[in-house]
Amino acid sequence: MGNYEESxxxxxxxxxxxxxxxERNELLETYNAASDIYQKLGKKETAEIYKKEFNxxxxxxxxxxxxxxxxxxxxxxxxSKTEQKDSENKPYYYLIIPIIAGLLILIFIWxxxxxx
Length: 116
Fold this sequence. Notes:
Number of helices: 3
Oligomer: single chain
Order of helices and strands: HHH
Number of strands: 0
Radius of gyration: 34 Å
CATH topology: Methane Monooxygenase Hydroxylase, Chain G, domain 1
Low-confidence stretches: none
CATH architecture: Up-down Bundle
Number of domains: 1
Helix content: over 70%
Mean pLDDT: 83
Largest sheet: none
């Protein structure tokens, strides 16, 4: 029991440090370890508190990751549609520019012939 008692003191310090620093993944692992340590010490209520903290933080991290993934997929989809739209419009530009250039040349030739 002595090792678990010392571990519980160290784990409480680690929890405090991770809460202050905002290191969520490390805090998550520490909550899980704290739950295990207190379970082995026979402090079931404290173990249950840390298990609930672990579950709540784990759900929060997953929700945040899923939100980031969803946002990234939406941005990629929007970018893909924009690129597709741009690529659809490009062939028209390649046709319009030579036609306009050809018309300008014809107008120039017609005007020169008209002056003679």
